[in-house]
Specification:
Blueprint (H helix, E strand, L loop, with lengths): L10 H12 L4 H8 L3 H10 L1 H27 L5 E5 L5 E5 L1 H21 L1 H4 L12 H14 L1
Antiparallel strand pairs: 1-2
Helix pairs in contact: 1-2, 1-4, 3-4, 4-5
Length: 149
């Protein structure tokens, strides 16, 4: 196993980590690949607001990449049917239930993780369209609280 790097933040390493996150690769996998501890990357996020913001943007792009990957998996039917030979020597297409089940598992896993990681965008209750403007309701609630004092 590769030895973890020290706290130094090499721009090439940061670019590789953020680029990988934006492609939907997990932070753990990226850290193993580049010999850096996930805890160190999290510490960088806590210590540097610019890095934290860029990290969050990369992660959001990664979520979109994972969602697109789920769609690609669902649309890929290349291995869903097998050619089977009948007793009379002719061939027929038969469903490959193992491949269909595996694809379903891969899609469901990605969608469930997305719903946990970004519930506002990918969760069950995610609204289509722009986010609602809560400012008027918040102002009214604030006024009611202040009136009660």
């Amino acid at each position: 196993m590769a030895r973890a790097r020290k706290a130094e933040r090499d721009p090439a390493l940061v670019e590789a980590l953020l680029g990988g996150l934006a492609e939907g690769i997990t932070l753990r996998k990226l850290c193993r690949r580049h010999g850096v501890s996930p805890a160190l990357v999290h510490r960088w996020r806590l210590e540097d607001k610019d890095f934290a913001r860029t990290f969050a943007l990369a992660r959001e792009a990664g979520f979109e990449a994972i969602a697109e990957e789920a769609l690609e998996i669902a649309d890929d039917d290349a291995q869903d049917f097998l050619e089977k030979e009948k007793a009379d020597g002719s061939t027929t297409l038969a469903k490959n239930p193992d491949n269909v089940a595996r694809a379903r598992l891969r899609v469901e896993t990605r969608l469930k993780l997305l719903s946990k990681w970004a519930p506002g965008k990918y969760g069950e209750g995610a609204a289509a369209g722009p986010a609602p403007d809560w400012s008027e309701r918040l102002a009214a609630a604030r006024a009611r609280v202040l009136k009660g004092r």
